[in-house]
Amino acid sequence: MFSRVGKWAAGMALLNSVANADRYLTEIEELIMQVKRDTDGKEHISWKESITEKLQHSKEFSDKVKHELLIPRLGNHYSYHDAMVVIEQLKREFPDYINVSSFGKTYEGRDIPLIRLQKGNKPTTDRPAMLLTGAHHAREAVSIQMPFYIIFKFLHGALHNDQYYLDLLENVTLYVVPMLNVDGVYDIEQTFFQTADHVMKRKNKNDSWGGKWLCGDDTYTGVDLNRNYGFSHGNFGAKEDPCSESFSGPFPFSEPETRAMRDFIFKHVNEIKFVYNFHSYGNMYVTPFNAIAGDLLQDAYPTQFALFEEILDEGHPANQLKVGTAHDLLGYTSPGEASDWILAATGIAAISPELGTDNPATNSFRLDTPELVIDVLDQQYPIIEKTIEKLQARLEFVQVGHADVDAETKEFSFTVEIRNKGLKDMQDFTIMSAQASVEARFDDPHIQ
Ligand SMILES: [Zn+2]
């Protein structure tokens, strides 16, 4: 009898949460859709508040534009459904730029949305790509908004005919996975419907490796996706306690979400030149290798190390941005981390920034005001845009050799070293002509 009452109570709680979810979805639908009547009297549904209209609102990517697009009506961060509605809107409104497909399935069987942003049909062999992911850790809310900010910024540039963004969209591809840990993000939203609290869920929803009865609270079950990759997996006790916030899972890629990452990266290995895996919080540019203490990166991957240095140099990062490995910056190692594995397995430069600013108020998984959210996104964006710009091939003079003048003929020659400082391969590059006209001025009194 007692257990029947218990079941009945659980059933009521479930019904209640479904009702709350339904109410919320109805609100979202009312917000974004309206019934339109065609001239022939037929009714059809159309999107009410279009992203296009919001982007067209001002030629500047202004605070008003950012707030309207990135701050939802309820709260300061995107919920699961906020993100899904925006993805649907992007797909409908920007068919020339946006393609949406499934990156893979989660443990609970949800699709992980993959957004591809590009323009035109330039083949992938001639179009370097970047992969950007958010929410390896579900509670790191601003890491979901960061990839959307980048998409909006590029579409805003394209809509206002800014040649810089139009050129990039024609020549590079951005693959965006705003929520890798979809189940965790969904769980936070659904729990909010029931309790009005945002649970601090970090890991995925797979409790089949243990912990179901042990951890006490569903918040602490699951696998830490950012410890589940195949570089230094499971070291330092990461796979011993299934209730630990950094439980690695029993073996590398035991989770469907990380397998989706692995399979996508291997499939696009010749195309992808850089990966950003966004996290929060902190104000840190976290470089590989996070599984170890020490500077393996500079010695083992000097090219990628130099690339990170260039990006930091040219991207004019936010105030007080800290750079280094997890051990350098946080004092702990992260075995099985995503960017470590990507670099070690493929040579692709990969980075795991902890998004934030030098304002201590941004040191939180959920920020207190919309202004703090926009400030984090604004300050982190330039360095990412600089990285996207570097995807293309870019030739630069790095050294002009000394010119030796022939005393009799007065002729001279010199060598010029040109280097590709972009990430796109240059194997079919040829110098067509080396003819030049030189006008020499000899202002120095010692030259006669
Ligand atoms: Zn994280």
Topology (elements, then pairings):
Layout: H1 2-32, E1 33-37, E2 43-47, H2 51-56, H3 63-70, H4 80-93, E3 98-105, E4 111-117, E5 129-133, H5 142-159, H6 163-171, E6 173-177, H7 182-195, H8 256-267, E7 272-277, E8 284-286, H9 296-300, H10 302-314, E9 322-324, H11 326-330, H12 338-346, E10 349-351, H13 370-390, E11 395-400, E12 404-405, E13 412-413, E14 416-420
Parallel strand pairs: 5-6, 5-7, 7-10, 8-9
Antiparallel strand pairs: 1-2, 3-4, 4-6, 11-14, 12-13
Helix pairs in contact: 1-7, 5-6, 5-13
This protein binds zinc ion.
Zinc ion is lined by residues 136-137, 140, 226, 279.
Summarize, please:
This protein is of the alpha/beta class. 37% of the residues lie in helices and 15% in strands. The chain has 13 helices and 14 strands.
